[in-house]
Amino acid sequence: MSTYVITQARMTSTRLPGKILKQIFGKPLLVLFLERLKRMKTIDGIIVATTADQEDDVIVETVSEFYPNMPVFRGDREDVLDRYYQCAKKFSVSTIVRITSDCPLIDPHISDLVVSKFLSSNCDYCSNNLPYRTYPHGLDTEVFSLKTLEKAWNNARTQFDREHVTPYIYHNPNLFELISITSSCDLSSNRWTVDYPEDFEFVKAIYEKLYQQKPEFDTNDILELIKNEPQLIKLNSNRKI
């Protein structure tokens, strides 16, 4: 049994191209994101799943530069479900943790809670954002077995399901046993992912305030910061959750 984070990454984001290589303190967002993932205690490793497109050569080069022993898989650009399935098969991953690379504020402790919940149950899929979100947008973690992924890979037909990997799973509760974890308080109004330039400005501000003093800053540190400096929320408040 092996448990790996498989994180999808590509340069050709439609809303903010090249976002994962935008830099803070001389480090690309992708590297800062992976730095946080490496603090997880419930996983055996991390695999970066990018595309076979030439534009994404730079992702392979970046991972190799900062984490030379971290595996990288290259697959289909649009059929991300296939990319995940082929990646999991190649590296013999039995439990897949899906966390997308546009989440540079991901909290390893919260992600560990989701993985632990999955591993201690007999479910097919566990997440922290269904059936409704209680954590900040940008802390999303999904965990599922290779068997579940294979069933989705065999049966998902729509472009949406193939592109977004897991909708076929959580939209078919009659086929899969789904469980979730929720926050003790509703934090869903917080937008901590990076889709737009305003999101990057927010994340950059958080790192500039916290990273040098405490590189392993967590959700509580961010919440305390924005409580004391509420103007930070305005940086991307024009973008919906």
Automatic annotation (TrEMBL):
One of its GO terms (cellular component) is cytosol. It comes from the Archaea. Its EC number is 2.7.7.38. Keywords: Nucleotidyltransferase, Transferase. Gene3D superfamilies: Spore Coat Polysaccharide Biosynthesis Protein SpsA, Chain A. GO terms for molecular function: 3-deoxy-manno-octulosonate cytidylyltransferase activity. CDD domains: GT2_SpsF. PANTHER family: 3-DEOXY-MANNO-OCTULOSONATE CYTIDYLYLTRANSFERASE (PTHR42866), SPORE COAT POLYSACCHARIDE BIOSYNTHESIS PROTEIN SPSF (PTHR42866:SF1). This is 3-deoxy-manno-octulosonate cytidylyltransferase. It comes from Candidatus Bilamarchaeum dharawalense. The lineage of its organism: Archaea, Candidatus Micrarchaeota, Candidatus Micrarchaeia, Candidatus Anstonellales, Candidatus Bilamarchaeaceae.
